[in-house]
# Entry
Amino acid sequence: VDSPSEENAGFADRLQAAVEDKDTPCLVGLDPHLELLPPEFASARDLALPRSARAELLGNFLCQVIELVAPLVPAVKPQSAFFEALGADGVLQWERVLREARRAGLIVIGDVKRGDVASTAQAYATAFLEGAGERDAGARCDAVTLNPFLGADSIAPFLETCRRVRAGVFVLVRTSNPGGADLQRHGEPELSAVIADLVARWGSELPELTGECGLSGVGAVVGATHPAELRQFRERMPRSILLLPGYGAQGAKAEDLIEAFLPGRAPRGALVNSSRGITAAWREPRFAGRSWRDATRAATLEMIARMRKVLRAR
Amino acid sequence: VDSPSEENAGFADRLQAAVEDKDTPCLVGLDPHLELLPPEFASARDLALPRSARAELLGNFLCQVIELVAPLVPAVKPQSAFFEALGADGVLQWERVLREARRAGLIVIGDVKRGDVASTAQAYATAFLEGAGERDAGARCDAVTLNPFLGADSIAPFLETCRRVRAGVFVLVRTSNPGGADLQRHGEPELSAVIADLVARWGSELPELTGECGLSGVGAVVGATHPAELRQFRERMPRSILLLPGYGAQGAKAEDLIEAFLPGRAPRGALVNSSRGITAAWREPRFAGRSWRDATRAATLEMIARMRKVLRAR
# Structure
């Protein structure tokens, strides 16, 4: 689907091209909680079935979601935990989903939140950014989320891999869950501010990861439920792409997110993610009576329309 | 191998019984770097082989290591990254290794360092502590390492699972890698001290996880290369089992670790891990000319003897 030149571009440029092509910074999180699968896939919860069959149903669901949203959004963000919960059979479906998403022209952001000492971090970089030992490397992510708790040398192997395979990272800076503040707001300046400065520095130290679009492949995850903090993080990381989870189910509204974007006509500098708001939309009363496929598509279009309206009003 | 009553005991009591049975707090880390496999398993690096065959070689190596060390140590600590680096085929071997270690009577501490929002953390707890969706649940860990960056609600699902399935956790408090200080020493008190206090509190709030041995199943990972800090962490977490990585290859000596142990005749309150020092011992000049199996066994016995000597000199 991508032209060779696009494939050869760095992560930031490929992402920005996809955002402009679809005219939206919205992405769809693929968090397949077994409990939230549509009734058609309910046997995935049936412990009497072999695990491989259960995992395959989960993969079938996600491949259909991918088919539905691929024409609408630039990227998907699969969450590895829900695949790992079905062991090796689940990871086989993870690989299937990565292949299918890339085949559909989507950029894949693996939500893996890994963080470990350097030699172990290198193994994770291989696992997620280089196709996990397969020769064709089709089952790989274009970028991953990372946990910075172990410091600079735990991130460095990923950055080196990004340079080599033109991938990206999103470092957790501030998370939107209730316990996010427990550690992340510790100290003066707050720990999250320290991490934000590190993210900006890692990006500056690796100019190869900054694209023609002016953005760096060293991005950050910033919880979208703290809009007052967004401006501060935007200023501390002027070239980073900010990945904003928490739209919809976790409570953030489109207007709350505007501070994360950079000036300009096209959406630039931030990505807005919704997971359950899309893949579990069929459960919401306003979609009652509609198929899960209709609900998924309608919820995606709704989110895109809301963000577009707010971005155009700037 | 375990009697039913031992199987029904909580994690802390099962671990302490195993430590006393083997009379050592030493455990063997299973970190199968492809580059560090003995020559007999070198084809695991051969990209011309199918990935499943490469992964199987890695599993064969580790099952032999397990057979060698099972009579000597109470527990093993497999590192998931090196399995994930071979994708679904690697995770199949991860499951094989967990089964094999448990069958050999070893306690399994999964070094997975996960940390995510609550619903995702629950999926990880299922993956690692409940057998990843398999009915027999044989491929499960007795405990896992966790990254606390996302705060209390990211740990809670693991603690609840521990209560239900009598498992344990080791929360990263201070890591021994060079970048460990980047975030972990931030603020006053240092972030690591804040986390240590949280670990102690989580343990107190869940008395069911404290065994008859007086130790809690809510443990901590404390980098063994900072001996001066060990006493402080021991005081802040009086009932936690401290998992000390970094013996051997990472530079810590037996004498440096003594502050982590609680008083008493038997080793109690701390575990000492060596990974490459054991599984890559065959590369060390002092074992030149010996088989990798001999070197593995000799290095394990050496480590046990050194720790025993230091513990007895207390």
About this structure: The longest strand of chain B covers residues 107-114. Chain B is about 45% helix and 15% strand. Chain B touches chain A through 66 residues (CB under 8 Å). Chain B has a mean pLDDT of 94.
